[in-house]
Amino acid sequence: MTADKQFSYLKYTVFGWLPDGQAFWIDRGTVQDEDQLDATLRLRPYFIEGEEEPMFITAGLIDSGHRPHEVYRFCLKMINLHGWMILCEG
């Protein structure tokens, strides 16, 4: 999952990767803030053809260029819930 922080919303994109390195665009959208991003994506199941169990987002990259302190708080929350979330700028 990647998210780009805009002035009043976030744009997100979800990609999936196969073991051989192939990437697939799976989902995209906009949400109003980091809390809505969490509520929208953290528990959303993604079903893969041929697999019995759905996949869930386990990592992400989020832009911290706009209102970075909000993004830092969100990433710390996600680290505690999931293991990690990477910050980037630009």
Q: Any key phrases for this structure?
A:
90 residues, 26% helix
Please sum up the structure shown:
With 90 residues, the protein is α/β, with parallel strands linked by helices. 26% of the residues lie in helices and 30% in strands.
Q: What would you note in describing this structure?
A:
The protein is elongated and about 40 Å long. With 90 residues, the protein is α/β, with parallel strands linked by helices. The protein has one domain. Strands 3-2-1-4-5 form a five-stranded mixed β-sheet. The protein contains two helices and five strands. The mean pLDDT is 83. The chain has helices spanning 34-41, 68-82; strands spanning 2-5, 10-17, 23-31, 61-63, 86-88.
List the helices and strands and how they pair.
Layout: E1 2-5, E2 10-17, E3 23-31, H1 34-41, E4 61-63, H2 68-82, E5 86-88
Parallel strand pairs: 1-4, 4-5
Antiparallel strand pairs: 1-2, 2-3
Helix and strand run:
EEEHEHE
Q: Please state the average pLDDT score.
A: 83
Helix content: 25-40%
How many β-strand stretches? 5
- Structurally, the number of domains stands at 1
Proportion in β-strands: 25-35%
Uncertain spans = none
* Rounded Rg: 13 Å
Strand numbers in spatial order across the main sheet? 3-2-1-4-5
Largest sheet: 5 strands, mixed
Structural class: alpha/beta
With helices defined by DSSP (H or I, 4 residues minimum), what is the helix count? 2
| Overall 3D form | elongated
The CA-CA distance between the termini, in Å, is 16 Å
